[in-house]
Amino acid sequence: MEQAVKSAPPGGNPLGTEKISRLLVQFAIPAILSSLLGAVYNLTDQVFIGQRIGYLGNAATTVAAPITVVCGAVALLFGIGATVHFNILQGKGKTREALGYGGGGISMLVISGVVLMAVTLAFTVPILYLFGANQEVLPLAKTYLRITALGIPFLLLTTGGTLLVRADGSPKYTLLCSAVGVGANIVLDFLFLYPLGMGVEGAALATILGQVLSGLMVVRYLGHMKTGPLKREDFRVKKDRVGNMVKIGSAASLNQVAMLLSQIVLNSSLRHYGDLSVYGSSEVLAAAGVVAKVNMIFYSVIIGFSIGCEPIMGFNYGAKNFARVRETYRKTLLFVVVIGALEFLCFWLFPNQLLSIFGEGTTAYGAFALRYMHIFMFMVAINGVAPVTMNMLSSTGNAKRGTIISLTRQIFLFIPLLLILPLFLNLDGVLYAGPTADFLAMVIALLVVRPELKKMKEAGT
After folding, report:
1. What is the model's pTM?
2. Which of 154, 276, 446, 461 pairs as cysteine with 323 (C-beta 3.0–4.6 A)?
3. What DSSP character marks residue 411?
4. Does residue 45 contact residue 203 with C-beta atoms inside 8 Å?
């Protein structure tokens, strides 16, 4: 199948002719597994640190975690920006131009990764205070972040580069890239934390070594692109290409930026109102971080579906096969709602079992973790509607509408609710801000996408 994607002319490309459900299996399932492995990357450190260091270690990784959101924002800005153009140009039969966007996107990922690494190392302590650290967790968080910062260039290369690999018709290789990195991370986590007793330093070192391996595998693939060979001039940073990448990738990137801002406000609110509660700020931050990692496993499935479907929708939009775009969107939406419903059931039926994976804590820590899981995550069944809709609009060149959706949940809803509700409900206000924003974001996403779906229906196939 992957060879057919390479050799067939645009009109005979399986993306435009294969049964949608079969394409979803081919592209979405490997993307889901790859995304799951990425979640395991983050989850592994939390589990090993929780078991070996305790809840303060979990709190430390919680306040260090937003830097990965920054990396995700940049990776998606250039990764999606490059691959959407790559897909659309392929659909139009313009192979040489498509490869130019692929190589240019890789160059921007590497340059951005080096810059982010330097900034993080130079301003580690101010960054951690901004992300919600208190004096109790700062020493562990500082050690963890200063080591993991060294892997940022490879993290960006892996996150953004695998999008190009998938768009080139090799979704299985993207899975292999993630699997190798995660496998190395797990083995090294055990080795560094148990036999060698390296503590948080070992967990951080295991993380970056796994990222280096994944990044090098992406580099290896770039020398064997199925669409055609990448030439030296393809890697040149050209102003017009970068501008087009930013225009398309901005929706997904702004969604990550919005997540970053909301995470900063959330951590600050948890720290402030946690100090005023019976729980304590360190316990509250640790519990929120643990629940977020559990949610990441389920949410990665949703993200995997939305990313895996982008080549299908982008190609068919470029080929003006709008009926297939709409069908892919509907089926993807159905899948993510089902996954969200399963997550909801797990949170309510097996909360203690999920929390116990991350080690023991104080009574206050356990009590708040359970409350956070039941209230803050109440609307997880519908969490996939907004990101899938956003990616659908971005992959079809509708960056403006995608940007609206990317900003809605975090900026226009969640942050204002985090600032207002706690004034009346204290710490409970922080908890209820989550499900309220989730529901309103779903409604807005469906309203925004409706005109575009109607336009494609009227245009026919």
Report:
1. 0.69
2. 461
3. I
4. yes
